[in-house]
From TrEMBL:
Protein name: ABC-type polar-amino-acid transporter
Gene Ontology MF term list: ATP binding; ATP hydrolysis activity; ATPase-coupled polar amino acid-transporter activity
Database matches in Pfam families: ABC_tran (PF00005)
Enzymatic reactions: a polar amino acid(out) + ATP + H2O = a polar amino acid(in) + ADP + phosphate + H(+)
Gene3D superfamilies attached to this UniProt entry: P-loop containing nucleotide triphosphate hydrolases
All residue ranges annotated as the ABC transporter domain in the record: 11-245
Subcellular localization, as worded in the UniProt entry: Cell membrane
EC identifiers of the protein: 7.4.2.1
């Protein structure tokens, strides 16, 4: 089996196409993500970045092409799909915490309800994750009692509680007040340095420069350009990438 080989990519998209009705939002996307790699996806609004992320854990079905995760083609439904979802953590712009549950309960929910793990074991793991993201003191509070940055760190802890093989971040700091962006990026940088495989859609070019192994520039549903961050930012090859960078930097 391919999954025995440690250098096998964790995520492989081949010839992926996605339409919303008449709108062609992913155009023949080919992308291979190595284990432990941090890929930052940038590009204009509407270029298909969120759809790409959502396709990777099959929140969006694709129309053709293939996505392979950890040696297995993405399952269509049922238990295998649930397992895939639990192996790919996702953090969105909006934190999506359950308002009527405490932070600790939010973090414990997936492992206990979906994975049927023992709650003692999960509680310990959840507390250590909350500690790691710097909000152990907020464990018994409800989401509304936390700042946006704390809520987003709780959302990251919740995703990590499932012990995912990869983490997808879709503009995780875009909804935050500026003073809270750093604390969330710090947690993400820590994860990256510990070897987590990450796909990060972000406009935070500082994060891309420092934490990414590769920057992928998307425009109009296509992967237009990719390079290591140093090369990409110093020397974007395409006019579209140059134009995009001139607007955001
Ligand atoms: P990005 O994240 O880069 O801003 P998206 O992946 O969200 O881009 O969207 C790509 C395109 O697909 C946009 O034109 C958007 O309006 C469209 N789109 C996204 N989701 C849907 C949907 N559920 N139904 C119809 N069109 C959609
Ligand atoms: Mg988006």
């Amino acid at each position: 089996m391919g999954r025995m080989m440690t250098n096998e990519p964790l995520i492989v998209l081949s010839g992926v196409n996605k339409w919303f009705g008449e709108l062609h939002v992913l155009k023949d996307v080919n992308l291979s993500i190595a284990r432990g790699e941090v890929v930052v996806v940038i590009g204009p609004s509407g270029s298909g970045k969120s759809t790409l992320c959502r396709a990777i854990n099959r929140l969006e079905p694709i129309n053709n092409g293939e996505i392979v995760f950890d040696g297995t083609r993405l399952p269509e439904e049922g238990r295998p799909l649930a397992r895939l979802r639990s192996e790919v953590g996702m953090v969105f712009q909006s934190f999506n915490l359950f308002a009527h549950k405490t932070i600790l309960e939010n973090v414990m929910l997936g492992p206990v309800k979906v994975r049927k793990e023992k709650s003692d074991v999960v509680r310990q793991r959840a507390m250590s994750l909350l500690d790691r993201v710097g909000i152990a003191a907020q464990a018994q509070k409800y989401p509304a009692q936390l700042s946006g940055g704390q809520q987003q760190r709780a959302a990251i802890a919740r995703a990590l509680a499932m012990q995912p093989k990869a983490m997808l971040f879709d503009e995780p700091t875009s909804a935050l007040d500026p003073e809270m962006v750093g604390e969330v990026l710090d947690v993400m940088t820590g994860l990256a340095s510990e070897g987590m495989t990450m796909v990060v859609v972000t406009h935070e070019m500082g994060f891309a420069r420092h934490a990414a192994n590769r920057v992928v520039f998307m425009a109009d549903g296509q992967l237009v350009e990719e390079a290591d961050p140093k090369t990409f930012f110093a020397n974007p090859r395409t006019d579209r990438a140059k134009d995009f960078l001139s607007k955001i930097l």
